[in-house]
Amino acid sequence: EEEDSDDEEDEEERADMHMARRLEAGLYTLQMISVIVGTVSIHSPKARDRLRNKLDQKDHTLSDIREVVVNFAQTLAREYEVAEQSSAKEGAGSDAKVREEATKKLEGDKQKLELVKSIAITFPVPADAGDAEGEAASGG
C-alpha cells in the first residue's frame, strides 16, 4: 500500500513538472490569447471570419483555439476543486482574516472558471459539410 502511495506521489510530481514546463514554454499566454480570441469571435462575426482566414494561412482552425479554451477550462476546474477542498480543510483552524482572504480568492477563481467555461461552450465553430471544425463542435 505504501508503494502505491509513493507511485501516486511520483505521478503527481511528474504531472506538476510537466505543467510547469508547459507554462514556461508559453501555455498561459496561449490560453489567455485563446480566451480573448474566443470572446471576440463570439461577439463579432466579421472578426471571426478574419480570424478564420488568418488561421487558414497557418494551417490551423477555430477548433484548435476552442480546444485550448476547453483544456484551460478543465484545468481551472481541477485547480478550483483542489483549492476548494484545501480551503475547507484549512478554514476551521485559521483566523477570520485568513479565511476571508481565502474565500475572496476562491470566489475570484470561481468567476474566472465560469467565464472560461462559458466561452468554451459558446465558442463559434462552423458546421460546414465535411469540415473537421463542425465535427469538433458537435463533439465528434
Verbal overview:
This is Beta-catenin-like protein 1 N-terminal domain-containing protein. It is found in: Nucleus. By secondary structure, this protein is mainly α. It has one domain. It is built from six helices and no strands. Helix 2 crosses helix 3, helix 2 packs across helix 4 and helix 4 packs antiparallel against helix 5. The longest helix has 30 residues. The chain is flat, with a radius of gyration of 19 Å. The termini are far apart. The C terminus is likely disordered.
Q: What is the oligomeric state here?
A: single chain
Helix fraction by DSSP (H/I, runs of at least 4): over 70%
Give me the number of helical elements. Answer: 6
Shape: flat
Uncertain parts: 128-140
**Termini, distance in Å?**
40 Å
Helix-and-strand structural type? mainly alpha
Organism: Florenciella parvula
Protein name: Beta-catenin-like protein 1 N-terminal domain-containing protein
Region (Disordered): 83-105
Transmembrane segments: 25-44
Record the SSE blueprint.
Elements: H1 2-24, H2 27-43, H3 45-57, H4 62-91, H5 96-122, H6 132-137
Helix pairs in contact: 2-3, 2-4, 2-5, 4-5
Briefly, what is this?
Helix content is 83%, strand content 0%. It is mainly α and 140 residues long. The chain starts with a helix and ends with a helix.
